[in-house]
Design brief:
single chain, mainly alpha
Length: 103
């Protein structure tokens, strides 16, 4: 059975709050987000059907696992990029030290 809170008015209040949060999509605010992919979830939460599905435990577990996989991949990739750029920079610094000034 689908549980609905629409009759209590709380669903409408929550939906209005979710609409209010859309201001985070504005680039002047979005640049402060540590996890900008949350904006996609905010978009999905605008849909009553999506919110209704969140009572379904397998659905929420799937969303959670997908998000965790995304973060894991993102942070691993970011760490690799940082490490590679650090190694490259160190190599460039060593080459600059080997270059002798021309007289």
């Amino acid at each position: 059975a689908v549980v609905s809170t629409q009759s209590t008015g709380k669903e409408e209040e929550f939906a209005n709050y979710l609409k209010y949060l859309l201001y985070w999509k504005d680039p002047k605010y979005a640049k402060f987000l540590k996890y900008p992919q949350c904006l996609q979830l905010l978009e999905l939460l605008q849909e009553p059907r999506f919110r209704d599905e969140l009572i379904n435990v397998p659905c929420t577990r799937f969303i959670q696992s997908q998000q965790m996989q995304h973060w894991s991949h993102h942070f691993r990739r970011r760490a690799n990029l940082v490490n590679n750029s650090t190694v490259k920079k160190e190599g460039e610094d060593k080459q600059e030290q080997k270059v002798e000034p021309q007289a």
